[in-house]
Amino acid sequence: MSKRELGRSGIQVPSLTFGGNVFGWTIDQPTSFSILDALLDHQLNFIDTADVYSRWVAGNHGGESETIIGNWLKISGKRDKIILATKVGKPMGEGLVGLSPRYIKQAVEASLKRLQTDYIDLYQSHDDDADTPLAESLAAFDSLIKEGKVRAIGASNYSAPRFAEALQVSKDHGLARYETLQPEYNLYDRQDYEAGLEKVITDNHVGVINYYALASGFLSGKYRTAADAGKSQRGDNVVKRYLNVRGIKILQALDAVAEKHQVSPTQVALAWLIFRPGITAPIVSATSLQQLQDLALATRLQLTAADIETLNQASAY
């Protein structure tokens, strides 16, 4: 499988990122282990998680995903086989939130312990922290890189102006810069990324590992009528947000291109993303080996210019 560089970090990754939010949420540890093993079989060795995954589940406290990955790393001995990304900044309890230097140093040690590793390949700000000066947060991240605990840093959920400001602060102060950005972006949700972030990304050679690559499963074709809302825990929200005239038009275009290539709509939606300027490795998740197989095949699909134009027209605002 061909590799792509995460910004200017020198870190090479496959064209899909696996989202570890499912570990400890929708799949248990044994199933998670089987998925992690299969990821390497498919040469999809870039895994993204966060300290807060999956704190929202009843009985969880956060750190469940990192703990499962860490347990797998200990048993498998395959730390050198994967590129590991995690995040800091979302609420983890009273006083445990944000991007202050003190908290960043505290949070990275907790993540390293749960992951059972002595370094993180990509450490990301999960949210912008308006209460902490960018220079202070970036200096803390820079120190972690110099200590060898982190190889590169990235950000998630930043606006275009704020992300551009962060890049300038790094340049002005001689600090490590955000090499990646993690925005919401897919064939349906295009406007925010393309209207502002895309130019900042491409002008500065930043990598993009976008989340909700399949619009919470909508672009897989799983939700085609209101009755399909019951197919998953998030089905109601998916149907309310995406099942409209434009959404149906996008599904029809995906179906047409998928039929032409004899592949699934999932593979087409991901192949469109992989083609987009600045996109490095869209984030995808799977809860079964069958789903993972479908995702992996997307990396091999070559869309034609006509295919891309069909999808662009269908998803135009």
Automatic annotation (TrEMBL):
GO terms for cellular component: cytosol. Gene3D superfamilies: NADP-dependent oxidoreductase domain (3.20.20.100). One of its GO terms (molecular function) is oxidoreductase activity. InterPro entries: AKR, AKR_Detox_Biosynth, NAD(P)_OxRdtase_dom_sf, NADP_OxRdtase_dom. Keywords: Oxidoreductase. Pfam families: Aldo_ket_red. Residues 16-314 form the NADP-dependent oxidoreductase domain. This is Aldo/keto reductase.
